[in-house]
Amino acid sequence: MAINFMDLLGSMVQGSMSSPVQSSRMSNAGSGIQDILSSLIGAGQTVKNRVGGDNLAAGGIGALLGALMGGSSSTTANSLGGGMMGLLGMMAYKALKNSMGGASASSSLQSQSQSYVQPTPQQQNSDAEIILLAMIDAAKADGQVDSGELGKIMNTMKSSGIGQEGMNYVIQKLQGPMETAKIISAVRGRPELAAQVYSASLMSIEVDTEAERKYLDKLAKAMGLTPEVVRNIEQLTSSDSDLQC
Q1: pTM score, whole prediction
Q2: Which of 31-40, 129-138, 142-151, 212-221 comes out lowest in average pLDDT?
Q3: What is the rounded distance in angstroms from the CA atom of residue 191 to the CA atom of residue 114?
């Protein structure tokens, strides 16, 4: 049976919520979601679709925000995974938009939205896997995950209803080598996914070691993200973030 990476991603999100730093970053990033949705809807259906509006309408973002506000007991791993992907999509949209200038930004975004094709469930699952790998790599950036951290992750996954196949996958990835090359290959020609990968990596860890900082810098450069886009993403997860479109 194929692994549902949206479920696994949701489980990782639940685990991250137990960390004050990661939970704070997700809360900061999610604080302007409803305003963004309103702006996107007002700008037109095609743009809303481009950043995952249709999926968000199904309740994914609501589940994520509800969990951040203390209502995680009534949410599922899949809805949290969908919410996380939606949040990352909005952050990528905002970060890339802000790196462009005025009329050129509007023209570029309009052109891209017109050619946008709603991803298939298979593509969404594949993108969720890349985001998951990015979060796992970030967690290993300053060394291997210790047994205590691994046990905590496994307990969260069990409580989320993740099956043994999914748990084995995560254990293998946590204990295995970094998969930066696979991530870079997956985002080639997809700047929005690259921005989502960087956002997820940043939100997964407390960047308090030189090894973690160097890893994030190297990852951003390898994925082709400009310093301005990187700054925009980091501002979106800071305490004074402003996600207004």
Answers
A1: 0.74
A2: 31-40
A3: 17
